[in-house]
Amino acid sequence: MTKLLFLLPFQAKAALLQGEVPVGCLLVYDGQIIGKGKNGVNFTKNATRHAEMLAIEEALDWCKNRNVAYKEVFARTDLYVNVEPCIMCAGALRISGLRRVVYGCSNERFGGCGSILDVASDQRTTDSQPVLQCVPGIFAETSVQLLKEFYRGQNPNAPNPKVKKAHDIQDIPLPSLEGVQMKDPT
Amino acid sequence: MKMKHSGTMKAVLADDLTKSMEFVRVYAADITNKKETSRLVKQLGEIFPLTRLPHMKRVRCLKENEEKHLQIILCCVDQEEDLSSSPTLNEIFQKAPGFDQTGLGNLFSTRVARNQPKTRAQFEEAQSHWPTSFHEDLELTKLLNGTYFTKTEQERINLHMQMAVELADQGKQSGEVPIGVVIVNSDSSEVVASCYDLRNTASNPLYHAVMLCVDLVARSQGGGAWEIQDTPGFWWRKPHEASNRLADLSSDTSLGSQPDNLQNDVGQPTLVRDVTESQSGQNNLKRKFNELDDSSYLCTNLDLYVTQEPCSMCAMALVHSRIHHVFYGVTHPDGALGSRYKIHCQPGLNHHFQVFRGVLEEKCRNLYSEIT
């Protein structure tokens, strides 16, 4: 857990240093980080390049390289992200069949896990993807600090994101991260 | 010339624009002496201000047998109040003992619109109960009655959707979910990017046609993230084309030149929007510069055509990309631009856009007819 605590804000901070919205995330499967992402919207001129999308793609490659079916891996994979995923990313997480999202502060502007819409747990009619479990409140303070830092530079009128209380975190067992293989941060 | 749609294309509007009016109950009374009207309006405004119903007219005029007859709203009916027990005027004015009831006749309760109407249909519904104020939004009226686009524009819309249908069919041949997308400049009708779905063949659940096309637009602006192999049917305007054109324009000294030289020459279906002849060449040039500048930021000033209603991921991607208009063929039960959600007019989001469904609906439906 301590390694995650270190890596997640690091990812977000890296995005901030590149002039991107400071959002970073990790996909953790069976104690391993199989995907990581940081916001890359400005660099690619593509407004959909959110950290979560990049991490999902990295994890898809991870599965491909090991010749395992992504659906089986993703069903036991959790996303750690410093801000509540937006509606688009929540949709992407559902489509990909990920198990759970653990996030920092809520996203009052775009949130897809309840803040604006609840895409994470709506009942689909045409696919059988299970509902995405959402656990808010991890690293919330660091996340708020980073976002404040970003919006201070870019948009002084933007409201500060509100922080949700971590009410039920103790009840949900988090994956053990002992022996996590750390990739070199690039 | 404006005319009604011949097809089934419909604007997908926010719920509060299409729903029927809600009503609340008020006490009202006949005015037996017209001379008392202005005093009654003034005094009632002081003791019973209609703060929750600022859109309501206090007095209405009924015409019966060529005779005018006035009625006035007294106050709202409390929600807990038992309607079967009809109170008297004295009971209503219990709390205002000094009130002069001269001129007030028969007391009754009636229903009036809870909110100000937003559309003409809502206005007419509200008006049939009691007069209310209404400020007509002309663009909204056109969206509702199907005169938002001219016949020529309508034809162009169909042409672009036809392209999307053909792309979807191309994808279908190679075992894909048959969804085709075309992204077009709103002003010039120039195609900026086109593609179809790749989620099956690429084993990537995120490769929805809309997501791919948005990335192709980024590529046309010198960005882009996905390395899509050369796939037949996939197209995007090459970045240098736009900049070349900008260079051409800056060296263009013939200010009276026709706008046609803006259009691309790579064999893409190009549809030139009519430019009024009264427009001076100088303005044309200015407009051309603006067009190129505008189109270089995400999907600003771009329209998207897709054969099927986009999902939540794709719909929100279009919000993030600042799309201008979206046209789709058939609805989808999990769709996010009208069916499950209306993300394009979702309160709280920072970008809203117009959505039209039912473009070439039959052709699009045929694409999905074999899919259960």
TrEMBL record, chain A:
Gene Ontology MF term list: tRNA-specific adenosine-34 deaminase activity; zinc ion binding
Superkingdom in the source lineage: Eukaryota
Entry keyword annotation includes Signal: yes
PROSITE patterns per record: CYT_DCMP_DEAMINASES_1, CYT_DCMP_DEAMINASES_2
InterPro entries cross-referenced by the UniProt entry: APOBEC/CMP_deaminase_Zn-bd (IPR016192), CMP_dCMP_dom (IPR002125), Cytidine_deaminase-like (IPR016193)
Chain residue ranges for the region called Disordered: 157-186
GO biological process: tRNA wobble adenosine to inosine editing
Signal peptide: 1-19
Record bears the keyword Thylakoid: no
Pfam families per UniProt: dCMP_cyt_deam_1
CDD domains recorded: nucleoside_deaminase
Every CMP/dCMP-type deaminase domain range: 1-124
The entry's keywords: Hydrolase, Metal-binding, Signal, Zinc
Protein name: tRNA-specific adenosine deaminase 2
Cellular component, GO annotation: cytoplasm; nucleus
From TrEMBL, chain B:
Keyword tRNA processing carried by entry: yes
Domain CMP/dCMP-type deaminase: residue ranges: 155-356
GO BP annotation list: tRNA wobble adenosine to inosine editing
Alphabetized GO MF terms: metal ion binding; tRNA-specific adenosine-34 deaminase activity
GO cellular component annotations of the record: cytoplasm; nucleus
Keyword field: tRNA processing
Gene3D superfamilies for the chain: Cytidine Deaminase, domain 2
Any one Pfam family match given in the protein's UniProt record, by short name: MafB19-deam
InterPro entries associated with the record: CMP_dCMP_dom, Cytidine_deaminase-like, MafB19-deam
Family note: Belongs to the cytidine and deoxycytidylate deaminase family. ADAT3 subfamily.
Protein's name according to its UniProt entry: Inactive tRNA-specific adenosine deaminase-like protein 3
Source organism: Holothuria leucospilota
